[in-house]
UniProtKB/TrEMBL annotation:
Protein name: Isoprenyl transferase
Family, as annotated: Belongs to the UPP synthase family.
GO molecular function: ditrans,polycis-polyprenyl diphosphate synthase [(2E,6E)-farnesyl diphosphate specific] activity; magnesium ion binding
Species per Swiss-Prot/TrEMBL record: Hoylesella oralis ATCC 33269
One of the GO BP terms on file: polyprenol biosynthetic process
PANTHER family in the cross-refs: DEHYDRODOLICHYL DIPHOSPHATE SYNTHASE 2, DEHYDRODOLICHYL DIPHOSPHATE SYNTHASE FAMILY MEMBER
Length: 251
C-alpha cells in the first residue's frame, strides 16, 4: 500500500492494539505457542518503528491480561522470558521511543519488575513516541483500583462526593499521563474488547481484522489508519454540525 494515500495531517495521536492470534498462528504451522509469541515480538518491532515514522505519539499494546495468569505455567514462563528479552531491544533508543508500563506489575516476577523499571528510567527522555505496554492488566481491575482510591479520599474529607466527575476518575487511572486512544485495533479475527481500556475507548474508533498478529505488517497498519481517516468523529454531534464547524475553520 502506498503511504501517500494516508493523510499525514490526520494520523491518530494514540493507537491502542489488542495483539491477538499468536497461538493460533503457531498452531497452524505445527509449532508451540511460544513460537507464535516470539514472532509477535518481531511484529512489535516493525509496528513500533512504523508508528514512529508516521508520527503516532502513543502506542499502547495489550501484552498480558490478568486473565492470562490462568494459562499453563510453561506458557506464562515463556512469555515472561520474552518480556525480558524484548526490553533489551534497542528499538527504544533507535527510534527515540519512551517506554511505559501499566497494569498490576506487583504480580510479575521480581526480575521482570526490575527490568521494567530500568527500561522506563533509561528511556524517560525519549521524545518521538511513547510505547505503553499493558502487562498483567485488566480494565475492570484498573477502574476498581481507581474507585477505591477516590472512596478513601472522600472518607478522609479530601474530596467532596458531589465534585466527583469523569475527570476525577480519569486522573486516577493508570493511563492518566496520555490521551485516550483515537484508534483501537484488534488482530486475529475476534470481535470483542477483552477487558481492555474500557473507560478510555468510550469514543475511540474500532478496527478489527482477521490477520494474526505475527503476520500484521506495515500495510495492515496503513489499512487501519486509512479506515480511521475515512470516518467522521462526531462525539454525539450531527454530521451537519461537524461539516459546519469544518467549513467555519476553513474560512
Amino acid at each position: 500500500m502506498n503511504t501517500n494515500k494516508i493523510d499525514m495531517e490526520r494520523i491518530p495521536r494514540h493507537i491502542a492494539i489488542i495483539m491477538d492470534g499468536n497461538g493460533r498462528w503457531a498452531a497452524e504451522q505445527g509449532k508451540p505457542r511460544s513460537f507464535g509469541h516470539q514472532a509477535g515480538v518481531d511484529t512489535v518491532r516493525r509496528i513500533t518503528s512504523e508508528c514512529t515514522r508516521l508520527g503516532v505519539k502513543y502506542l499502547t499494546l495489550y501484552t498480558f491480561s490478568t486473565e492470562n495468569w490462568n494459562r499453563p505455567a510453561d506458557e506464562i514462563s515463556a512469555l515472561m522470558g520474552l518480556v525480558l528479552s524484548s526490553l533489551e531491544d534497542e528499538i527504544f533508543m533507535k527510534n527515540n521511543v519512551r517506554f511505559r508500563v501499566i497494569g498490576d506489575v506487583s504480580r510479575l516476577p521480581e526480575d521482570v519488575q526490575r527490568k521494567l523499571r530500568e527500561t522506563e528510567e533509561h528511556t524517560a527522555a525519549n521524545k518521538n513516541m511513547t510505547m505503553v505496554v499493558a502487562l498483567s492488566y485488566s480494565s475492570r481491575w484498573e477502574i476498581a483500583k481507581a474507585v477505591r482510591h477516590i472512596a478513601k479520599e472522600a472518607v478522609a474529607g479530601n474530596i467532596n462526593v458531589d465534585d466527583i466527575d469523569e475527570e476525577t476518575v480519569s486522573r486516577e487511572l493508570s493511563t492518566n499521563f496520555m490521551p485516550d486512544p483515537d484508534l483501537l485495533i484488534r488482530t486475529g479475527g475476534e470481535l470483542r474488547i477483552s477487558n481492555y481500556l474500557l473507560w478510555q475507548i468510550a469514543y475511540s474508533e474500532l478496527y478489527f481484522c482477521d490477520t494474526y498478529w505475527p503476520d500484521f505488517d506495515k500495510e495492515d497498519l496503513h489499512k487501519a489508519i486509512l479506515s480511521y481517516q475515512k470516518r467522521q468523529r462526531r462525539y454525539g454531534r450531527t454530521e451537519d454540525q461537524i461539516e459546519n464547524e469544518n467549513k467555519n475553520q476553513n474560512e
